[in-house]
## 1
Amino acid sequence: MSRLPHVCGLCLLLRIWQLLALAPFRVSGRVGARCQRWVTLSAVLRWLLLTSVAPVVLWKSAAMYEATNVRHSAVFKAIAVATMTGDVCISLTLQGAQLWHRKELAELVNSLARLHRSRRLSWWSTLFLWLKLLFSLYELLCNVPFLEGAGGRLPWHQLLAYGVQLYVQHVTSVYANGLFGGMLLILECYNQLERGDPTLERLLLSERCWLKVVQRFVKVFQLGIFLLVLGSFVNILANMYAFMSYFVAQHGVPLTISNNCMILAVQLYALILAAHLCQVRSSQLRKSCLQLEYVPESLTPEKAMASTPFPLVSPTGSVEFLILGLFTLDNSFWLFLVSYAMNFIVIILQFGLKNMKHAYP
């Protein structure tokens, strides 16, 4: 892992994962990633501490809406508290799942490190990865105007609870960045092999090796991906409802809500797009293997005309990001989410127009 360049962001992501207890193991240059008792114990104690203080943090954070000058409706407060609670629960569940699968996660990190020693990220992949990291940083900095405006009127215990809440919620964003970086590395492997010498033996060996890595990747992170997609989509719908409610009531555009909705949508689409491109490249690799002619050396033309026990050499399978047997991360799933969101907007507009007619007869 010491050979991972800092400019690509993968090493930085791994260090941040270790700092936030998303990677509860020790990484050394020779041995690689391995679990140690004191590292696991410290991560467990941190998770138990955050879990125990989570109800108090949510209670204090919800009370901040009463301390601000902006008057919110009861529905808006209920949605805000519900989404806040969901984010904290998802973040704590992700940390617990990482602790539970720490051995499989360490093996996966070692496999990805071996891939990265032979396949470096291109400049385009590096650019997209850093844009994703900067986007998460921008999401965190969007809370600064709120702290500047209401920070002087809030007591210290509410500010402390708000800081803990931001820390716990930011764990989800860092987790998504790690998944995105791993998918970019797998995608770069397929892209570099496609630009190389397409010999059948090399294609088959690479396809078999990368298929095992992707299957392990999906097995370790499928629960996290499910919670990440579910939480992001529910937050997008909640922000859309808050946006429409504010627009109908105040006749203005809330920039904070619109920015938050845009950030969530872009991050969710980036994750789905990376998974979709990995599956497309895997399918192209499979087609390339099937298009190349392959005849075993011991198979003569006479034996080829007759029945022969020699099996045809073909790829072992195709990459599929099937999450908990419920859905596959691809463009069709993204279109399903978009169509559902559009229907949600239409329903909100219908109820909003009816309420305006009753309010102004």
## 2
Amino acid sequence: MERDQRDLVTAADRVYHYLMFSGPESWGSHRWADWAMNRDRWDWNPGVGLIAAADYGSFGGSQWVLRDVEAWVERNLGGSEQVKVVNSLAPFAVFPLLYRLTGKRFYADKAEEIALWLVKQAPRTREGAFEHTVTENASFSEQVWADTVFMAVLFLARTARLTGNKELADEAMKQTLLHLQALQDDETGLLFHGWNSATGDWMSAARWNRANAWNAVGVPMIVEEASELCGDVEMLGELRERYLRLAEALVHCQNESGLWPTVLDRAGFYEETSGSAGIACGLYKAARAGWIPAEMATASADRTVAAVLAQVRGDGAVLGVSGGTPVLATVEAYDEVPTFPTLYGQGLVLLLFSEKLRGYV
């Protein structure tokens, strides 16, 4: 094993352990510390970490990691019954894998139940896209957010593949395309954070780093799960065309450091680690799928890996991660969001490291 590979393995292990086992004494004293790092709630933040942990364990064949994932589900499952919204579906994305590994019918049945709720009952905008609904006491009526693709559509695609349900696969692919159509800027190829169907605009029109990351990494994962069952060649073709435009635009606005600014077309804004990791992970995945040139993806994403490694603290905490961010009132407000370790930050970095390690196999 080469030194670079050993360093990456060590860093991934540290990031995983901070994600799954760190305590409040290491989270910091800021007022968002508990929300950012408390694993024991059923929501998108721990859900992203859980998806990454399952991917890490599955790739490495680490049965103890997968036992950690199942233990988290068993410990927190009750929280899934308290509220059913798009943004709280992320943890269910590990259920298809848990079913395959354990044979426990509960995981398959529950995944199908939630997927059918999503398709048949979840609120939609007038264009048919899933409305972005959240666990917090807030309403974003008629709004399409980039976040939804990773938080809900990935789960839907995985459940479609598990069940062989073509209706679910069709919907997963349709939702992915609807989100790209609503959010992609024709001028730059980048994605805006959100779209308001009622007012017909992108609100603050921020080309936010992590919004692009949720799609950069989420779209290849969704297509891998659902495209064969869906079989819509025209839809897949448009998805690939849009993704290539997005990837080229992302590579174009990457900083020399290997990271991306928190708003992609504002080079003077602070560099944000979690979104940078998600973007690079997506570039690796898309290149592996043959969607984008491998040379372009590797040249960009390898620089990101080196930069992200420098953001991993000795105890595994990932630094430079912006706090939870709704669609903000102005572009400038994104540069004022504080940074601190979060479960989704740990997760996106772990996904990146796992994807890079796949390249060594």
